[in-house]
Design a protein that fits this description.
Layout lengths: L5 H10 L7 H17 L6 H14 L7 H11 L1 H9 L3 H9 L7 H19 L7 H8 L7
Helix pairs in contact: 1-2, 1-3, 2-3, 2-4, 4-7, 6-7
Length: 147
Amino acid sequence: MAQHPMPMYTPALAVTDVEDNNEDSKTFFALCLEWMATGIHHDKMVACHDELLRSLVYASEYTGSTSIAEAFKMQSTQLENRTPMVSCFGLLTALSRMELLLSNEAVDINNNIRTCVVLAIERLSTMEELDLSCHITSVNRSPWRNR
């Protein structure tokens, strides 16, 4: 199942479907993504890992359970996953939005989401081998930079 990217993207679509009010199905699909995050790592399945990260970023809008935050935390525990996580477009923004979460969900869910996200951010920010030079040069070439 993890060898094909669509099974990862489909739960992300289901989790963020605003027209579907079935919280049970959203929670189930968020759990599916969390389960996939336990077994897919960058060193074993590079293409699937990239799809998983994109799916998690997309699904990060769902705040009904802690599953997506747990998946980010789980992914950040593996050293080989950290550089791809930092390089994944939108992932750091998704983590920051989840950390600043103010939703109508139960307070304990919000606090658990924040705890998981802060741990993931901490792990991503303490990498010694992370090379951000490619990101710094892209910022210097920004069209909004004063000339």
